[in-house]
Write a structure and sequence with these properties.
Structural class: alpha/beta
CATH superfamily of one domain: P-loop containing nucleotide triphosphate hydrolases
CATH topology of one domain: Rossmann fold
Helix content: 25-40%
Strand content: 15-25%
Number of helices: 6
Strand order of the largest sheet: 2-5-1-6-7
Radius of gyration: 16 Å
Shape: globular
Number of strands: 7
CATH architecture of one domain: 3-Layer(aba) Sandwich
Order of helices and strands: HEHEHEEEEHHHE
C-alpha cells in the first residue's frame, strides 16, 4: 500500500508491461468517489501525454453504474483489435446522450472513475490502480463540490459503488493501491 499518489510510479508500471490494448496500453484508475482518481489521471496525462476518458461521462445518470461495464467493453474492444473507437458523453444537465469523441489506437489510454476496470475487460488492462479514502472524507469532498442538496444522491452513490466493487473484486485485482485522506497528498 502506498500513501502518496505517484503518477511516475503508475507510468513506469504500465510501460514495463507489454501492450494490452492492441498496440497501446490501458491504465484504469478505479476506486472510490472523491478519493483522488481524477487528480491522478490528469497528472498521468500531463507526464505521459495520455488520452483520458472520465467514466462519469459514460454513465447514464446517477443510476448508470450497472451498465458501465458493457459501455466500456464496446469502446475498448475496437481499440484492442487495432482500430479506432469512440465514446459518447452523457450530459448530466440535459439528462441525455450528447456528442461523441473519437479514440485512436496506440499510445496510453487512461480510464478514470468508479467502475473503470470491470472484469469483462480485465484482459485489456495494462495497469489497474485503486484509489481510496475514508468514506466520510469522500462524502465531504463530494458535498463541497456538488452542494449539500446532493447528500441523498451521494449517500446512495457510495452504497452503489461499494456493491459494484465488491462484486468486481476491483481492489483485490489492483496492481497499485493508493490511500488518500486529510494527511496525504491527493
Amino acid at each position: 500500500m502506498t500513501a502518496a499518489i505517484d503518477p511516475a510510479e503508475v507510468l513506469a508500471h504500465a510501460l514495463a508491461r507489454p501492450p494490452t490494448l492492441g498496440p497501446g496500453r490501458l491504465v484504469c484508475v478505479d476506486g472510490l468517489a472523491g478519493a483522488g482518481k481524477t487528480t491522478l489521471a490528469l497528472a498521468l496525462a500531463a507526464v505521459a501525454g495520455a488520452q483520458v476518458v472520465h467514466t462519469d461521462e459514460l454513465l447514464e445518470g446517477w443510476d448508470g453504474l450497472p451498465g458501465l461495464g458493457a459501455t466500456l467493453e464496446a469502446v475498448l474492444r475496437p481499440l484492442a483489435a487495432g482500430g479506432p473507437s469512440a465514446w459518447t458523453r452523457w450530459d448530466w444537465h440535459a439528462s441525455g446522450w450528447a456528442e461523441s469523441h473519437p479514440l485512436s489506437p496506440g499510445g496510453l489510454l487512461v480510464l478514470e472513475g468508479v467502475g473503470s476496470a470491470p472484469l469483462r475487460v480485465d484482459d485489456l488492462v495494462t495497469t489497474l490502480v485503486w484509489v481510496e479514502a475514508p468514506r466520510e472524507e469522500r462524502l465531504l469532498r463530494g458535498l463541497a463540490r456538488d452542494g449539500e442538496h446532493m447528500r441523498p444522491r451521494w449517500l446512495r452513490w457510495l452504497d452503489d459503488e461499494a456493491a459494484l466493487h465488491a462484486g468486481e473484486r476491483t481492489r483485490d485485482r489492483a496492481d497499485l493501491v493508493y490511500v488518500t485522506g486529510p494527511s496525504s497528498s491527493a
